[in-house]
Amino acid sequence: MEGLPKQLSDVSVEIITLKEFHDKYRHLMEDNHFFDLSKPVKHTKIYYMSHYAYGALFLPKIQQRSEQSCYFYLDDAKFIIIEEHDWMKGLLNQIANEKNNIELTKPIQVLLMIIEKMIYSQEKYLYEIEEKLDQQEESMLNNDGEYQPDLDHEFHKYGRDLLAFKRYYQQLSEFCDLLDEYFQEIVKPISRKKLQYLSLYAKRLKDDALDLREYVMQLREIYNADVSNKQNRTMQILTVVTTVFAPLTLLTGWYGMNFKHIPELEPPISYPILIMVVIGIVIFEVYMIKKKKWLN
Length: 296
Known about the structure:
It comes from Globicatella sulfidifaciens. It is a multi-pass membrane protein. Mediates influx of magnesium ions. Alternates between open and closed states. Activated by low cytoplasmic Mg(2+) levels. Inactive when cytoplasmic Mg(2+) levels are high. InterPro entries: CorA_cytoplasmic_dom, CorA_TM1_TM2, MgTranspt_CorA/ZnTranspt_ZntB. The structure is a single chain. By secondary structure, the protein is α+β, with helices and mostly antiparallel strands. The protein folds into two domains: about 5-230, Up-down Bundle (Methane Monooxygenase Hydroxylase, Chain G, domain 1), CATH 1.20.58.340; about 235-290, Methane Monooxygenase Hydroxylase, Chain G, domain 1 (Up-down Bundle). The chain is built from nine helices and five strands, in the order H-E-H-H-E-E-E-E-H-H-H-H-H-H. It has a five-stranded mixed sheet. The radius of gyration is 35 Å and the shape is rod-shaped. The N and C termini lie far apart (about 75 Å).
């Protein structure tokens, strides 16, 4: 493919479309394996055959970035990347610019560099989420349980992204383990050590993603508990106010009835007595509310 760095072309690395692969290299794969290449890619995976390997590389949709994917074919002589877009082409150009002095002798070395780049390049987004969660926790403490409409949605989005990170790094770790197990004869000892290190590093990042996801769940529970407590406090105040005015409402309704003869209203002292009764009821209710500690 035009634009591929020379040091990659020298070790028989190609980036082509599925149609081009069919026209040039269809004979290299068994029928059922070739048909796998037409299926949508949702996982990073590798399958080892007797004289070749094939698989897929997948970057999930995280942090509002579109997902990326490609298939690949690998044997002792060539490494063929099959994609319809330019994701892997751009990634290989980045690798070539960063490691322009590296000496490549086997196609599998290019695959190792791609896996290394995929592991390291996404790590920063994981720690960006951690930083945002710390800021969100500080904001929650400062707001004293104030309801923030978008916060629950934010927690849900973080949890979904971290689950995608967990799967992403788990697949990369398993990918490295399979390469280490089945490709010992073509992976140099120093490359095997690098492969084992990448596998452990991917596992650590997977564990970090799981820890952060648990942190998100804890923050979400704390936030929901704070909002619930504030709502309960509001309902408690409304209940107390309703309780205070219920007897007064009864008196108002009782003596507001349109009867011609209500004997206790005829004496001149009736109104002052009613006021004293109302005051007494309010004092008694306030006393009982404080005694029961309804507003504490």
